[in-house]
TrEMBL record:
Protein name in UniProt: Carbohydrate ABC transporter membrane protein 1, CUT1 family
GO cellular component labels: plasma membrane
Gene3D superfamilies hit by this protein: MetI-like (1.10.3720.10)
Ranges annotated as spanning the membrane: 25-53, 87-108, 120-141, 168-191, 221-241, 277-300
Length: 316
């Protein structure tokens, strides 16, 4: 009697018991992250998307209002002002941090045995709580007795009113932001140490000078790290909040001593709309506008960056 054989399904291959067991363990270890993502990221995002189409003040139930919140986003001058401040800060902060970090990383590469010590020194400020940084720089940039203006006075320079003059508020914030460039320095240092030495030797044999080696060897070989820090620092700059809020909005005396529009960042305005004025629906619309803005800028950076970033093993 002939026995029937079930034909094998093309493209399908049964996994071994070991592979299935490993997959179950993988899902088990991923489960906390998946639950956390659904509960604390995806869920709130969906809820805020719904709230952005409503009027909601936390006390009363949400009331559907259609696109009213998004129309208000377009017409509200404070939204435009805070968004302009944020983009202006990012345009100053990101190139400055990247340039200084790369310069410091190049110096650290030449330090030798003390490199580990200086890596720690540069990275320690990153561990400082953001609120403490805001308070620290509020004291350092104080017009009357701040250490920055005292230092300028020693060389005969009359220091500006960093925290009260609207024209100097943004430069002061950018100066404060340099406190935490240590993480970018460490990334660049690691990238520089991975550049093959034979490339420099070949460039030397060809008669290349220091600038030529830096431009045609160093920069292409660390372009992946430059690209990564460009995206990360841009996203962080567009979400600037804690330090500036501590300096200019957490202290009533400071907040009342100057025009707060000069330090009104987008996330600060969003926070105040949500938790000070209880305009949760409008704040949710602001949050989604920021999300779309960051997404668009990141996609544009990825699109343009792929033309200039070199990855080892690629055929160019």
């Amino acid at each position: 009697m002939a026995t029937s054989v079930t034909p094998a399904v093309p493209g399908r291959r049964r996994r071994s018991p070991l592979a299935r067991r490993e997959a179950r363990w993988a899902y088990l270890f991923l489960a906390p992250w998946i639950v956390g993502f659904l509960a604390f990221t995806a869920g709130p995002m969906v809820a805020s998307l719904w709230l952005s189409f409503t009027e909601y003040d936390v006390i009363n139930a949400p009331r559907f209002s259609g696109l009213d919140n998004y129309r208000q986003l377009v017409s509200d001058p404070q939204v435009a002002r805070s968004l302009g401040n944020t983009v202006y800060y990012a345009a100053l902060h990101v190139p400055l941090v990247m340039a200084l970090s790369l310069g410091l990383a190049l110096l650290l590469k030449r330090v030798g045995r003390l490199q580990g010590f200086f890596r720690t020194v540069f990275y320690l400020p990153v561990m400082t709580p953001a609120v403490a940084v805001g308070i620290l720089f509020l004291l350092l940039l104080n017009t009357q007795d701040g250490l920055v203006n005292r230092g300028l006075a020693l060389v005969g320079i009359d220091g500006p009113s960093w925290t009260t003059d609207p024209g100097w508020v943004m430069p002061g914030i950018v100066l404060m932001s340099l406190w935490s460039l240590g993480s970018t320095v460490i990334i660049y240092l690691a990238a520089l140490q991975n550049v093959p030495g034979d490339l420099y030797e070949a460039a030397d044999l060809d008669g290349a000078g220091p600038w030529t080696r830096f431009r045609h060897v160093t920069l292409p070989m660390i372009s992946g790290s430059l690209f990564f820090t460009l995206i990360v620092n841009t996203i962080a700059s567009l979400q600037m909040f804690t330090e500036v809020y501590t300096m200019y909005f957490g202290n009533r005396q400071t907040a009342g001593s100057f025009n707060s529009d000069a330090a009104s960042f987008y996330v600060i305005h969003l926070f105040r709309e949500a938790f000070q004025f209880l305009h949760m629906g409008f704040a949710s619309a602001m949050a989604w506008l920021l999300f779309l803005l960051i997404l668009g800028i990141t996609l544009a950076q990825v699109k343009l960056g792929n033309r200039f970033v070199y990855y080892e093993g690629e055929d160019r």
